[in-house]
Write a structure and sequence with these properties.
heterodimer, A: globular
């Protein structure tokens, strides 16, 4: 009920954002029902223009583009979501640890993460993938670890503020262990800023995976994903076939949607009323 | 003044430390692989003798710390090793590509910086007007769009519909300066659109921030014109954050070129890095990664040093 009330008060931009996310999730879940074709099925000639059989036409191998786009939503969003979850899991545990333990642990972890953050993530990911080879598990772990540095910063800062509160002090004096402190005292109070950050991080991870797939080092064909589809269709653009713009547009569409929601969340969290 | 030099020394020291740790990570990354690189690259079906020969070629038979220092020492002497893919010295592959990448990044910066500052000042001057709203909307959307989306839209419009600029930016040494500029105009425009948004928002925020201070109020009460206040009173004080933003964005440009180079098939270092990662040509990847790291970290260092120098308050910390 509280959610519905919040929704009724939401500005137009937030509703547009919600609608965009809803459309994307629905497309991802119901992909096999919406489309009669399968992800890698070759359904006809190459580059068939838009028709009633193929609503967006076909690609360079004669696969249905709408089908690829829907399954692409599935793969891209699912992998980005898992990666962001992992990144938050690692980042926030390390951040809370550093804040509650303080001292040397905090010092060493923070300096190390400062150094990692001083290095461009794309180059770093490329270097690691050159060693591990491009596979989905490698992709998820590499991006999650790189991204967890940002989560670490935020959760450490938030936990630092909570850590000095009386109730944490009380729990400490009761003799609670560090895991209990993190789980029952710090985590519930650190939730709101972390949730808003989740949206931002998801956008970043999502764009990052799309970029890597576009470079041919992310999700590998024949699996459909949006970055890879831009790569596959990109060459044809010079012949006046603009199919690369569909997946690229889909990426931009979802990013704008998530950003609109994040803006709204930040607005609520900042407590401004207007 | 002594504290200022100490602050700079500390910052530069941290930059150097970062570089050392990054070089260690780049080196160790290859080391931590299960099995070793030779096996990973040649595959499981390779004969033991082949793996052994390849291992010797990569100098994997020496202990790690010795290999790290020889690698780093060679790197500083300009010897980047030989490529595994085509057996050519890495320095030959990297040399002119690095020049091309810098050429593209610098051209984009020359285009982007004045536009961003001008738009930022105008947006601050006409705050909350229709112009300001339009600019904020436009910049917000270019921030959420991936680079390749912007790039393909530009290709579709300017190279396919109106045939003005080439969609493939192939440049070589025989071309004159203006031919090169014509060839790189689309990637340049893409990069500009991506960075202008960010720089402009920061400039706008910095100027609006300064506009709230008492000395601006004073100038306004004296009856000085609004444009004059912004250009002569507010802008010099906003210089520190603006310089910082410019340097950070230049660092971003050097790295952001990777994707744009691939879209426009531009012969730069980013393209080489991506190709080498796909081919798992480790020496080339290590060398180009270290060069990217070096440029990125130096530009960020420059940003910090400049913002210390341009901010009088930081010169005398309490």
């Amino acid at each position: 009920m509280a959610f519905l009330k919040l929704l009724r008060q939401s500005p137009l931009s937030a509703r547009i954002g919600l609608a965009i996310i809803f459309i994307n999730i629905a497309a991802a879940i119901f992909a096999p029902i919406i489309t009669p074709y399968t992800e890698t099925e070759i359904v006809g000639d190459v580059w068939i223009p838009i028709s009633s059989d193929h609503l967006l036409g076909t690609d360079h191998l004669g696969r249905d583009l709408l089908t690829r786009l829907l399954y692409g939503a599935r793969n891209t969003i699912a992998i980005a979501f898992v990666t962001t979850m992992l990144s938050f899991f690692v980042g926030s545990i390390c951040g809370f640890f550093a804040a509650t333990l303080g001292g040397w642990t905090d010092m060493a972890l923070s300096r190390f993460i400062d150094i990692l953050m001083a290095f461009p993530t794309l180059i770093f990911a490329l270097m690691v993938l050159s060693v591990t080879g491009a596979s989905i598990p490698a992709l998820i772990v590499v991006i999650a670890l790189l991204d967890s540095t940002r989560v670490y910063r935020l959760s450490r800062a938030v936990a630092m503020d909570i850590e000095v509160m009386e109730f944490v002090e009380a729990a400490r004096l009761r003799g609670e262990k560090i895991w209990w402190l993190m789980r029952h005292e710090i985590l519930p109070n650190a939730m709101p800023p972390l949730v808003a950050e989740f949206g931002l991080r998801f956008c970043f991870v999502f764009l990052f995976i799309a970029a890597l797939s576009f470079l041919g080092l992310g999700i590998q064909p024949p699996l459909a994903d949006w970055g890879g589809m831009v790569r596959e269709n990109g060459g044809a653009i010079t012949f006046g076939i603009f199919t690369a713009l569909y997946p690229a547009g889909a990426i931009a569409f979802l990013t704008v949607g998530v950003n609109l929601i994040v803006d709204w969340f930040l607005h609520i969290a900042s407590g401004l009323k207007d | 003044m002594e504290s200022l030099t100490r602050m700079m020394a500390k910052r530069i020291g941290f930059g150097l430390l970062t570089l050392v740790v990054i070089s260690l990570l780049i080196f160790l990354g290859v080391e931590l692989l299960p099995g070793d690189v030779a096996e990973a690259i040649l595959g499981q079906s390779a004969l033991p003798e082949t793996v052994e020969a390849f291992r010797r070629e990569l100098k994997l038979n020496l202990p790690p710390h010795i290999r790290y220092f020889t690698w780093l020492g060679d790197f500083f002497q300009g010897d980047f090793g030989t490529s595994l893919a085509n057996k050519r010295p890495v320095i030959n592959l990297i040399g002119w590509r690095l020049a091309n990448t810098l050429f593209l990044a610098i051209s984009a910066a020359i285009m982007a910086v004045p536009i961003a500052i001008l738009l930022g000042i105008l947006a601050a001057l006409y705050r909350n007007s229709l112009f300001d709203r339009f600019i904020s909307m436009a910049t917000l959307s270019t921030i959420s769009f991936p680079e390749f989306f912007v790039a393909y839209i530009l290709i579709a419009l300017l190279s396919v519909q109106l045939i003005i600029f080439p969609s493939i930016s192939n440049i070589n040494e025989q071309m004159s300066f203006w031919q090169k500029i014509h060839a790189i105009i689309l990637p340049c425009l893409t990069l500009t659109l991506v960075v202008v948004a960010h720089m402009m928002r920061q400039t706008r925020a910095a100027i609006i921030n300064i506009m709230a201070s008492p000395f601006i109020e004073m100038a306004r009460l004296k009856g000085i014109k609004r444009a004059r206040i912004i250009v002569l009173h507010a802008f010099p004080n906003a210089l520190s954050p603006v310089i910082n933003v410019i340097a950070i964005n230049l660092a971003y440009l050097v790295v952001g070129v990777v994707i744009v180079e691939v879209v426009f098939v531009y012969p730069g270092l980013g393209q080489l890095l991506v190709d080498s990662v796909a081919k798992r040509d480790i020496p080339v990847v290590q060398a180009s990664g270290l060069i990217f790291a070096f440029i990125y970290i130096s530009l960020n260092l420059l940003a910090d040093v400049l913002s210390i120098l341009t901010n009088p308050r930081l010169r005398n910390p309490k």
